[in-house]
Every structure is written in C-alpha cells, then in structure tokens.
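Just wondering, does anyone understand what follows?

——
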Amino acid sequence: MALRKQQFDLLKNTNSELIEFKVFDKDGVQKSNVIKDVLITCPTVLKPINENLTIEYLRPLKEAIKTTNINPLKLLNYNPTFRYSTFNWNFGSLTSPNKVELLQPNTVVPGVIPVSGLFCLHQKFPVTADDKTNHLVKTLLSSTIALSGKDLELGFSYYIRDAQSVSTVSSRFFISIGADTTGNGTIDLMYDFSDNKFSTGTFTDDKFFKLIQTSGYNRWHSYKTKLDDISYNGVNSAKLEVKLFPLSTNGVLDFNLAETFIDAFYIGQTKGFKTITHTKTNGFNTEIFDSLPVNNLTGEYKVPNTFLTNEIDDFDLSQINGFFGRADRVESTLTNSLDKLILQEILNDYRAPIKKYEGDFYRDDASEIPIYFFNKVWVNFGENILQDNVTALIDSMEFDVKKNVYRINMHLPNVGTLIDIIFSQDDVLTYDKFKFD
C-alpha cells in the first residue's frame, strides 16, 4: 500500500523517524512544538537477549467492547461529606450557646470518627421544641437539579452523644423538600409526605415535613428514604432545596444529650442501571448485512473495566466531561465521543492481523536517556532474514536500570485500506451498540 511504501522508504533512506510533539505547560497552554527522532533499531541498538524473542500474530477484530461500572445513584449535591467546607451547602444558625459548625468530631468527643472522611456538621445541643423554621443545613437551590419521572433518594448518617448513656428521651429530626419549577429562585412546590407527591399549599403545614425518629445514641446510625417516581406537575425538571432541621427532644429537657454530628448527607436519583456496555462493531448496522455481513471477522477485544465514561449525563460522577477529537481529522461532536474514538482506534489497529513482539532487550548505544513509550522500534535483521516495513509501537515495558535490560511488548500498527491512496487517515466502517444493565 502507498502509505506503507512511503514509511518503509523513509526508514531505509534516513534511518530515523521524526515526530512533532506539542509541548504544554501545567495549565494546558501550548508553549511550543518539538521534533524528536523516536527511532530505536533492533538488533543494532536494541539487542535481543536471553533467547526469548517471540512473534505472535493476532487475528483482526470484529468487536471492541468497553464496560463502565456506574454508581446506580446519580449524586445531585456535590459535597455530601463536607470535605470542602460550605461548598454546595447553606448552614443554618442556632441561638447561642447552641451553634452549627463544621469540625472534626474527635476533637470534641474522643474516639468519634467520621463515616466518610475528615469533617462533620456539628450541632452543639438539641433544641427542646421542634424547629421547622430555622434549618440546620440545606442544599443550594441553584445547583441541586432533579429530573421528573425518576426516584429520588436522600440519606445521612448521624451520631448523638449521650453523656451518661442513660437517656430515655426520644429525639428526632425533620426534613423538607422544596422545588423551584420555574427557575426564578422561588419555591413553588413542596413535597407532601402524606400524599407522596409535590404539591402546593401552606408550606408550614405538617404534611410537608418528614419526621425522622432517631435510633439510639453513642454510635453512628444511618437514615435513608426514597421518593418514588417524582413529578412536578408536568415540568421535566426542577431545582430542589432539601432542608434538614435541628435535632429536637420534643419538649423534654435533657442535659445528657449533647454533640450531634451529621455526615454523608446525600441527595441522588436512581439511574436504573449499574453498567454500560459499549460495543463498537466492524461493519454496517443494517438488516441486509446482518444476514450477509461485509466481513467474516470474529475477534473480540474487551477494554479493562472502568468507572469513567464520556457517554453519560452531564454532572454525573462517572462522566468525563468535554468534547474530544483527533488532531489529524475533523470530528463531529454529535457522533463522536472519547469512548467511541478509543474503540474506533482499536478496530482501526486490528483491521488486519496484528504482528506482535515480546522479549528481553539490551540497550547498546551511547544515549543516557531511557527508552520511553513514545519511542518506536524498527525490527530490521536484514532483507533476507526479518525486516519490517513499519516501526513497532511499545505496548508495555519493564526496565532493569542496573542491568540496562528492557522487557518489551510491542506491535506493528495497521493503517489504511484499499483506498488509502485517497484517504490516508481513513477509519474502518463501524457502528455502536449500548447495553444498560
């Protein structure tokens, strides 16, 4: 093929392979372009040793598969563990000497460790009368956005200290959930915990407050509730204000109860799936070619499981945000994502049988710079023995510094098709399928 012949002629005539690299600073700003000779020749510079050099031919691929493990709950508030102080929260205030603050609990009660990290929300004393007006903590209305038609889940962990371990007082929290469906920053719906739906009315009524009876003292407890299939009177989404009100003792004064800690306060929506399996297939996605395929390839490559993807909603914890493309061609932001591009390049590489090398090598030249992954290896034992027409890409490498010995896995890349004279950077034709489990 034309492109391969050009590469081979350059290797033979120049004994070098010059690659232009873009240099960026720590802020991602491009500073310059640098041209490097990345060629390492075998066996003149990189000498095989230990008689273990092997060659393997890998079959072409029909499919490349990427599985992403997803948290089934999409987090709506971005600082549930209070690790980043007041970010995404609004803390309330209580009458002195009571107070609301963020601190490390073991600095107040030795031995109390947060369930999630370093910090907890701290209420000094319980209030005697139920307080449904002054919140302990609430989410920011502007950034807590929930969709209609999905379940809403919220929960938190709490630790209440009983100084004498003898208290029989029943203590409790209250929660309310308001919704702004117009986007004007005003609550126009509240969740009615009696009818289990968002509705209008007098928002101070008891039905708009969820009573949470505490389970005990002197150890961590968890609370969780789920609101099924929420809706906002025909609106697709709304901004939520979830309020947790101070711990109260329902009119009973008990000096033994003090030091209440709140941790891992989360609000989320269930996705209905835990994995995304993305399969990119070499061929056409039509009924005609299902019965009469364009190729008879059977190879399958599974990318190691990951928890990050570019193929999920904005603001999801598993999302890789942004639009991506390849520098040597124009990409469509509507059809291409980072996941699709990676799988496309795998199928491009495996459009034909892959030749792979593995073995131990001794570096025999005057260079003091170790081999890097950007280096490319030309296997050239002579035209009559073994001479590749393209350089190999390094897949994995181990370097014994003391012995100057490299353990290298590398392969020859495939590029181009029968029409590469016209399109030197063409992709194999593929289509995508997604499965949500």
